Amino acid sequence: MERNSTPAPKRATSLTTKDDADILAAWASYNQAREIYDTTPDEGPYIMGVNAAQQAQIDIMEPAENLIGEAAPATLRGLEIQLWSMLVHSVNTQEAATLARTEQLEALQGHCDWIECHALNAIRAIRAMAAKEGGAK
Fold first, then answer.
1. What are the pLDDT digits (tens) for 12-56?
2. What whole-number distance in Å separates Cα of residue 81 and Cα of residue 68?
3. Contact 52, 46 (CB under 8 A)
């Protein structure tokens, strides 16, 4: 019998060659801009509560966050990044947001409420699945 399609790799849940490079790049871009934003002097003049240097970083962060939030991840790492991005905005302190942005799972545990703890458990599950597949963090 002749094949007319490409078989999926073993243990694949769907046939895809997408590697979530767009999500990974957006996360790296967001993190770099956020690091600069967090260390930018908070000096006026201000427009809508931020200065020009801060706004320049916001202009990088917002499209990156939008891409991450709207993407349909094809990998466990892409899915994990979506959860981290959500956590950055759902925790209550700047310290906790930095822990989320830098993916410090265990350190963040003490800074989260019920819903954030569920997200952290999902990240643990994703990492366990990735480890079983021989893949990742």
1. 455 455 789 999 999 999 999 999 999 998 888 888 889 999 999
2. 8
3. no
> How many Cα atoms are found within 13 Å in the side-chain-facing hemisphere of 7?
5
Tokens encoding 80: 């994990």
Residue 88 burial class via C-beta count within 10 angstroms: exposed 0-12, middle 13-18, buried 19 and up = buried
C-alpha angle 5/9/10, rounded to 5°? Answer: 125
Q: Residues 6 or more apart from 44 whose CB is under 8 A from it? A: 51
Token pair for residue 33?
């801009």
Instruction: Determine the pLDDT at residue 133.
Output: 85
Q: Could you tell me the two tokens for 69?
A: 């939030």
To which residue do tokens 């999902």 refer? 122
Rg of the chain in Å (alpha carbons): 18
Cβ neighbours, 10 Å, residue 7: 8
**Neighbour tally for 30: CB within 10 Å:** 24
How far is Cα 17 from Cα 111, in angstroms, rounded to an integer? 37
